[in-house]
From TrEMBL:
GO molecular function (one): damaged DNA binding
CC cofactor: Mg(2+)
The organism of origin for this protein: Craterilacuibacter sinensis
GO cellular component terms, semicolon-separated: cytosol
Entry's cofactor comment: Binds 2 magnesium ions per subunit.
Catalytic site positions: E108
HAMAP family (alphabetical): DNApol_IV
Subcellular location: Cytoplasm
CDD domains in the record: PolY_Pol_IV_kappa
This protein's name: DNA polymerase IV
PROSITE patterns: UMUC
UniProt-listed Enzyme Commission number(s): 2.7.7.7
Length: 355
């Protein structure tokens, strides 16, 4: 099957944790609500409802800051068990449409519905049907993007959020990508966006017209990839969990972590997130543990070690090695990952998951 013939749906629930809480607590539906940690323990906001967003509150913001912006904000602790239950219900709905499902988190997934004959084979109608069932059976809303590849499906799910969907048809890909701001491109963060703008590259059309050699000089292999994306090309497959080669989590910190002790203090939380992600992948056998450290100057390093069990101590030792490579630099991001399965694919670059 050619890449242009694929039909990919990206489904993304709206303000997921907050929506589940509002479903279960009707008295919270019309107030500013956030799910997160307590301000007095330096907690951060995980998710907030749309009313809270009107005050400028967003995920990863310190709870103390959120309360300053909106003093009447109600912050409740996350109840992961209920979110997981909702996630499983949603997953069962996906399975009625396709087996090719790649979850990105509890509330987000790619579905490859190429060749599926339901809804007269229309991916747009399938997305509508999936969203209707999520609303009726789970009691929350979801948005969807429909496109010939993962990159565009994910961008599109954000287009009519919340409770909406957007389709990028194969014949519309070129125009859609041309008008897309570079910050929307897969893998482009603030720093890369700023560097692209400094080169006079603001939209997909500029990227597509840019000299591929220049992009490679500036950004290495990622430059090549950007050039492909700008031409609407993204060959990444929707990878069902059973085929996964790795699982990872990472966190960018609002304030850089100044030393090794501060980094170590973050490990238990990251490990808890990693464990829940591995359990969602069906507890596959582990082959190696991986730690990523990104420093304040954006340089980064990865350390890995063969292991078949998840041990905090082992991650701690890898962190120590990685941290030492920074020669005392502060740390802006930490990642923990595992390689899965028994096949020997160690030479492959470890692919970190995006959040
Ligand atoms: Mg979401």
């Amino acid at each position: 099957m050619t890449a242009s013939a694929r039909k990919i749906i990206h489904v993304d629930c709206d303000a997921f944790y907050a929506s589940v809480e509002m479903r279960d607590h009707p008295e919270w539906r019309d107030i500013a609500l956030a799910i997160g940690g307590r301000p007095e323990t330096r907690g951060v906001i995980a998710t907030c409802n749309y009313l809270a967003r009107q005050y400028g509150i967003h995920s990863a913001m310190a709870s103390a800051t959120a309360l300053r912006l909106c003093p009447q904000l109600l912050i409740v602790r996350p109840d992961m068990a209920r979110y997981r239950a909702a996630s499983q219900q949603i997953h069962a709905i996906y399975q009625a449409f396709t087996e090719r499902i790649e979850p990105l988190s509890l509330d987000e997934a790619y579905l490859d519905v190429s060749g599926v004959t339901l809804c007269q084979g229309s991916a747009t109608r399938m997305a509508t049907a999936i969203r209707t069932r999520i609303r009726e059976e789970v009691g929350i809303t979801a948005s969807a993007g429909i496109a010939p590849n993962k990159f565009l499906a994910k961008v599109a799910s954000d287009w009519n959020k919340p409770d909406g969907q957007f389709v990028v048809r194969p014949q519309d890909v070129a125009a859609f990508v041309a008008a897309l701001p570079v910050a929307r491109f897969f893998g482009v963060g603030k720093v890369t966006a700023a560097r692209l703008k400094a080169l006079g590259i603001h939209h997909g059309a500029d990227l597509a017209a840019a000299d591929p050699l220049l992009l490679t000089q500036e950004f290495g292999r990622f430059g090549e990839r950007l050039h492909q994306l700008a031409h609407g090309i993204d060959k990444r497959e929707v990878e069902p969990e059973r085929d996964r080669k790795s699982v990872s989590v990472e966190e960018t910190y609002a304030r850089d972590l100044p030393d090794l002790a501060a980094c170590r203090a973050e490990l238990p939380e990251l490990l808890a997130q990693l464990k829940s992600r591995i359990s969602r992948a069906g507890e596959p056998p582990l082959r190696a543990l991986v730690v990523k450290v990104k420093f304040a100057d954006f340089s980064q390093t990865t350390v890995e070690h063969a292991a078949s069990t998840l041990m905090l101590d082992a991650f701690g030792r890898l962190l120590e090695t990685g941290y030492a490579r920074g020669q005392g630099r502060a740390v802006r991001l930490l990642g923990l990952g595992v390689r899965l399965g028994n096949s020997d694919a160690r030479q492959l670059e470890f692919e970190w998951e995006e959040d």
